[in-house]
Design brief:
It is a single chain. By secondary structure, the protein is of the alpha+beta class. The chain has helices spanning 25-32, 41-58, 108-112, 142-145, 165-170, 174-188, 200-209, 236-239, 242-255; strands spanning 33-37, 78-85, 91-99, 132-139, 193-198, 214-215, 220-221, 225-232. α6 packs across α9. The longest helix has 18 residues, at 41-58. The protein is globular.
Length: 287
């Protein structure tokens, strides 16, 4: 396992919610955290700064960049989701959805994890490029992964504010909220075949919420032990546990307040659903 990989943001790396108190998950989450999409260049720079903080400074997973921006060649074909801490205004997490604009482009997993792609029917090449996407670059900063330990020197407002009990109870759900945001973004643009490369324990953790990925091959060494997974965004919502169904619906309503589900979103994506292959007539998954 490579250096820092054991500390990548996972459900297990955040404090568990208390089991002895009822929690209206969606209301509590949205009272403390605000889902957003990076629709402007300043917002995308904010995402890249957070990725640099997590992947380059905290985890040493990527080399430090002189400009403090963690980017890669897949960002031009991506859209970025964010979760913002309401009280301070700082980002509590981000995730991106990488799509294909044409058949010649690859998803990150195709470029970097080919030995882990052995499934006979669910690989990206079996579907039209406008129907596939990859969830990647999940980043949750340490102050939200381990919120009870405040930084010794905080440049941000959070460094000397402390968190309320209500806020602390919602932070373990940031990673799930980011994945639900990715599902909403995928459904709105007809990206029905979602892929991810992650630690198997993160996939298991998502399964407790009802986000059930299908593994595409063996565990491989890629910045630690990783496996590739597939998720069909058309059926993912109905498989969620009820509290997460509610959370998905309310995240969706905040990300796309005036757009019907599965409709293309002008001004948002660097890729589009072709009119002749719109979301109302998707291809079917192979049996």
């Amino acid at each position: 396992m490579s250096r820092g990989s054991a500390h990548l943001p996972t459900l297990e790396s955040t404090p568990p919610a208390r089991r002895d108190e009822p929690l209206d998950l969606a209301s509590a989450f949205l009272a403390c955290l605000r889902p957003e999409i990076a629709r402007t260049e300043p917002q995308r720079r904010e995402v890249h700064r957070l990725r640099h903080q997590v992947y380059c400074e905290e985890l040493r997973f990527e080399p430090l960049r002189p400009d403090g921006q963690e980017t890669d060649p897949f960002d031009p074909q991506s859209v970025h989701g964010m979760v913002r801490h309401r009280r301070s205004g700082v980002l509590a997490g981000t995730v991106r959805l990488v799509g294909k604009r044409h058949a010649g482009e690859q998803l990150p997993m195709e470029a970097h994890c080919a030995p882990g792609l052995t499934h006979e029917s669910l690989l990206p090449r079996h579907f039209p490029p406008h129907e596939v996407c990859e969830v990647s670059r999940l980043a949750v900063p340490a102050r939200f992964r381990q919120p009870r330990v405040e930084p010794a020197e905080g440049a941000s407002a959070i460094g000397h504010m402390g968190f309320s009990a209500e806020e602390l109870r919602t932070f373990p759900y940031i990673a799930v909220g980011l994945y639900l945001s990715a599902i909403a973004m995928a459904r709105h643009t007809g990206r029905f075949h979602m892929y991810a490369v992650m630690e198997p324990r993160l996939a298991r953790g998502m399964g407790f919420a009802g986000i059930r990925f299908e593994r595409l091959g063996p565990v491989i060494e890629y910045h630690g032990q990783r496996a590739a997974y597939h998720l069909d965004s058309r059926i993912a919502p109905e498989r969620l546990a009820p509290p997460y169904q509610d959370l998905l619906q309310r995240i969706d309503a905040r990300l796309f307040p005036a757009v019907a589900a599965r409709e293309d979103v002008p001004g948002l994506w660097p890729f589009r659903v072709p009119p002749s292959a719109g979301a109302t007539a998707p291809s079917q998954s192979p049996p």
